[in-house]
Specification:
mainly alpha
Length: 127
Amino acid sequence: MSARTAQFLIAAVFLVLGGWSLFAPASVIELAITEPYRDSAYIARFTMACFGAQAVLFGLMALVTRWDARSFAIFAVLLLPFFGFNYWFHYEVPVLTSIGMLDFAGNVTMLVLAVLGWRAARAEELA
């Protein structure tokens, strides 16, 4: 896998999950948040859509920039706290449903892609 492909696949995770939050925030709240924490008020939908807009923005930036090995390494390290978030808000304070744990699946996917992208970019830079 090339570094560019890994970068595009990372962007795809942001675009798919962020797009879902941006364009169907009520659906995300209904499916991804457990009943005790679910809120259908306008501000909850607005906040979810804002979160999605930021994810889509990052996904688009990942499509139009070129990451080097250092970029992939930094991205991988910066992803690590999100695993703590997923654990805490699924197991300790059960906010996220099993569908809400798609965020965890996306983070695992992006971490693997970041490592693969780092390896590919490093090889490309050494060549």
